[in-house]
Amino acid sequence: MTQTTGLDYWLKRFTDSDLPALASVVNDLQQLAADDDTSVKQLADVLLHDAALTSHVLKVANSIYYNPMQESIRTISRAIVLLGFANVRSICLSTSLVDALLQQRPHQQLLELLARAFHAAVQARNIASYLMARDQEEVFIAALLYHLGELAFWSCAGEAADRLVTLQSAPGADADACVRQVLGVSFAQLSQGLAKAWNLGENVVLAHAGGTRKEPQVQAIVLGVQISDQSLTGWDHPAMEKHLQEFAQLAGITAQEALEQVLQSAEEAVRVVATFGDERLAGLIPATDPEQIARQQQQRKACLLQPDLTVLQSCLQDMGMLANKQVGVDVLLQTLLRGLHQGAGLERVMVAVLAEGQSCFRVRQAVGEGFAHKLLDWRLPVDNPAQRHLFSYVLRDREVLWMGVPATSSLLDLVTQPMLQYLEKGMFFIAPVMAGSRPVGVLYADSRLSGRALLNEQFVAFKRFVQLVNRALDKMTAR
């Protein structure tokens, strides 16, 4: 029986089958860096073996970021003269990494990890500039390749990657245990193994092992990776403050100066990844603007939201029982929203009811990161012949709709600007909320935070909850 797990299996697969070109380029460039007698011609020869790589390297070398004076660079030799050997080698490795890993349809995990890798590389290089007079590009490369094993897995593992996503999305799943179950090895061990097999150099190996952490290059690499990882939880997180204090102490600067440098590095990382040709990565590096920071944190949390059948079934049962109990409407609506949000995995859900003498719709309850706050003052007048809209249409015609699919395209004109201002463009579910024959309001749900497409299973659950809430409201009204 062929082995499909374990360190040796994955090392051989990535090196010989999935990423042989990347392994070869990385190995060749690392050998050139280790040779003090390396010439411009030797580096040019390595690149010229691959016409596509040469073209991409020259494109990056001519970018505003690397060549702000816009001096024309048409050959690798010219690039080395103008930008320096270390810069061109760094560009080549970065370009090879992006091209090799993103050649297939990438998992979201790969895009997020690759963005973190570039962010870490820029942070590490800029930290190194405080600690050492040279070799900052060596630090950049080492930080960029720090998570190489995990990057390779999400790029090439196919069904194994899909299986890991499924395992890790289960409620209460231990992410590291799931990795070991699927791979037979941890991501850290896989990255260490590739570092040695691909000759990534002493800096990468020492950074993984921790070393004594007295070497300035290792300190810069590890701190750059930590800052990149921690930035996903916010720049003001207590753990980030600890990293900033460490940076300040190493560099001999104040904590405020360390923070300013780290934020500048994050902004620089956005420009770097854009230079390498994939705009998706730029949007995954934590922003430094307060409003953008809040928005990105919402998006990341939303990406983690997965349907939970246990919660779904529990809320469906509770909805049936609440109809026969003496409870308030708000308790019923809380159960409804919990079932759709945590149970069905819908990122934003709200109930808008007729208010002010049934002259407008106002939000009664909403769930989803920042959704309730956003809709705090929202008011949508009931439509009139001059300004018809979907909320009134749904309540009048008593239809449960999945907007954004071909079957409902004829109703898109009813999604008006006052609706889009608060709800934004994209797929959504909408249904009438009734108490017997009396109109109460509408139920709305979407997955706008992450931009994921809605699923048929979610629509089935949505319709079931609509039936239950309308039945419950009818019984409450009768009492």
Short structural summary:
By secondary structure, this protein is of the alpha+beta class.
Provide a descriptive summary of the structure in words.
Helices cover 61% and strands 8% of the residues. It has 2 domains: 7-303, Hypothetical protein af1432 (Orthogonal Bundle); 309-478, GAF domain (Beta-Lactamase, 2-Layer Sandwich). The longest helix has 24 residues, at 108-131. The protein is built from 24 helices and 6 strands. It has a 6-stranded antiparallel beta sheet with strand order 3-2-1-6-5-4, with helices on both faces. The model has no long low-confidence stretch (mean pLDDT 86). It has 479 residues and is α+β, with helices and mostly antiparallel strands. Helix 5 crosses helix 6 (85-101), helix 13 packs across helix 14 and helix 19 runs parallel beside helix 24. Residues 19-214 form the HDOD domain. This is HD-like signal output (HDOD) domain, no enzymatic activity. It comes from Atopomonas hussainii. Pfam families: HDOD (PF08668).
Walk me through the topology.
Blueprint: H1 7-18, H2 20-34, H3 40-48, H4 51-61, H5 76-83, H6 85-101, H7 108-131, H8 136-144, H9 148-156, H10 159-168, H11 175-183, H12 187-197, H13 202-209, H14 216-230, H15 238-251, H16 255-275, H17 279-282, H18 290-304, H19 309-322, H20 329-343, E1 348-355, E2 360-367, H21 371-374, E3 379-381, H22 390-397, E4 401-403, H23 417-423, E5 428-435, E6 438-446, H24 456-478
Antiparallel strand pairs: 1-2, 1-6, 2-3, 4-5, 5-6
Helix pairs in contact: 1-2, 1-12, 2-3, 2-6, 3-5, 4-6, 5-6, 6-8, 7-8, 7-9, 7-14, 7-16, 8-14, 10-11, 12-13, 13-14, 14-15, 15-16, 19-20, 19-24, 20-24
